[in-house]
């Protein structure tokens, strides 16, 4: 018997999340740690589970997530997108709920590269008239 699972990839800034959705009782594992332990003290972390809340499927799946790159905030948003995409694999009809909530949109904003002669990407050295 094959393992029933659904997969979605999410990206945000430089973070990449691989989300595996398996029928279960709501256990969430991020990089082999419990979800609460991995995002300890980060209030925004609950927003990563927004797709489950919007579709009303909270507690119906076990989530196995691997995430790398970026900071915690980017990782949370990457998980959110990956989870939404995995839910679409599970049931394409959920698109009607996920799309209006903006959960299927990839946030394409990336950090602009630093240019030579500048302090940062655009911040120029202080101008001195004399």
Automatic annotation (TrEMBL):
Keyword RNA-binding tagged: yes
GO biological process: translation
Domain of life assignment: Bacteria
One Gene Ontology cellular component: cytosolic small ribosomal subunit
Role according to the record: Part of the top of the head of the 30S subunit. The C-terminal region penetrates the head emerging in the P-site where it contacts tRNA.
Family per record: Belongs to the universal ribosomal protein uS9 family.
PANTHER family noted in UniProt: RIBOSOMAL PROTEIN S9, SMALL RIBOSOMAL SUBUNIT PROTEIN US9M
Assembly notes: Part of the 30S ribosomal subunit. Contacts proteins S7 and S10.
Record's protein name: Small ribosomal subunit protein uS9
Organism field: Marinithermus hydrothermalis (strain DSM 14884 / JCM 11576 / T1)
């Amino acid at each position: 018997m094959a393992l029933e699972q659904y997969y979605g990839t999410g990206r945000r800034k430089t973070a990449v999340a691989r989300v595996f959705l398996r029928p279960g009782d709501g256990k969430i594992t991020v990089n082999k740690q419990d979800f609460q332990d991995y995002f300890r003290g980060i209030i925004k972390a609950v927003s990563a589970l927004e797709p489950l809340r919007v579709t009303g499927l909270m507690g119906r799946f076990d989530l196995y997530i691997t995430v790398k790159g970026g900071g915690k905030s980017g990782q949370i948003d990457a998980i959110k997108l990956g989870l939404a995409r995995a839910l679409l694999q599970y049931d394409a009809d959920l698109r009607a709920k996920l799309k209006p909530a903006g959960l299927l949109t990839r946030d394409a904003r990336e950090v602009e590269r630093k240019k030579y002669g500048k302090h940062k990407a655009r911040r120029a050295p202080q101008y001195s008239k004399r």
